[in-house]
Specification:
Helix content: 25-40%
CATH class of the largest domain: Mainly Beta
Signal peptide: 1-29
Number of strands: 9
Structural class: alpha+beta
CATH topology of the largest domain: Immunoglobulin-like
Keywords: Signal
Protein name: Lipoprotein
Organism: Novosphingobium nitrogenifigens DSM 19370
Number of helices: 3
């Protein structure tokens, strides 16, 4: 006996549509599955990460001048902030109508940063670069502002300064700093004219 099964045209179309839709549905299903390695990475960090132990008994460094013993002194065209007889913590100088700000702490060759200076009335950010100073080993942070810049008055009052990798410095007001800012403002104004 021979039985022939006949199918109508709409059934064939439905079967063809299902055959085409099946791979698309499987592909979408595969995209939404959570892969165990990806789940582990999200919970524990990157697969190639290395954990480092931080010293538990070390306190963070104290701000420069935390004891309040540093003060300003004037040496020629440079105001030095620090403890007498030691290297300065900060200097302000006037050169060619520019107020030059130097934070003499180690900087990597080619590094640049913003030295954030917060006074009682304003906050300024001074672009600084790793700079080699004549007669000294290594690089320190140094930047400048135009001498006639009105923001230079931030140095007339007590301020704090923050530098990436350099920590916080607390600076008291001083006549030496005000004098350098005043001189530099006069030079900068003369240069503009």
């Amino acid at each position: 006996m021979n039985f022939a099964v006949t199918t109508s045209m709409p059934s064939r179309r439905l079967a063809a549509a299902l055959l085409l839709a099946l791979p698309a549905a499987l592909t979408l299903g595969a995209c939404s599955r959570v892969v165990p390695a990806a789940k582990a990475q999200a919970e524990e960090g990157p697969l190639d990460a290395r954990r480092l132990e931080l010293p538990a008994n070390e306190a963070p460094p104290a701000p420069a001048n935390a004891d309040g013993k540093a003060s300003w002194s004037l040496e020629g065209n440079t105001a030095r902030f620090g403890v007498a007889g030691t290297d300065p913590l900060l200097t302000l100088a006037c050169a060619n109508g520019q107020l030059v700000i130097t934070r003499p702490i180690a900087a990597e060759v080619g590094a640049s940063a913003l030295f954030a200076i917060e006074g009682p009335r304003k906050i300024i950010r001074v672009p600084v670069d790793a700079t080699a100073l004549p007669g000294q080993r290594g690089y320190v942070w140094q930047g400048s502002l135009p001498g006639a810049d009105k923001d230079n008055d931030v140095f007339d009052s007590p301020f704090t300064g923050t530098l990436p990798g350099g920590g916080l410095i607390k600076v008291t007001a001083g006549d030496a700093a005000r004098e350098i800012v005043r001189r530099c403002h006069a030079q900068g104004a003369a240069t503009k004219a």
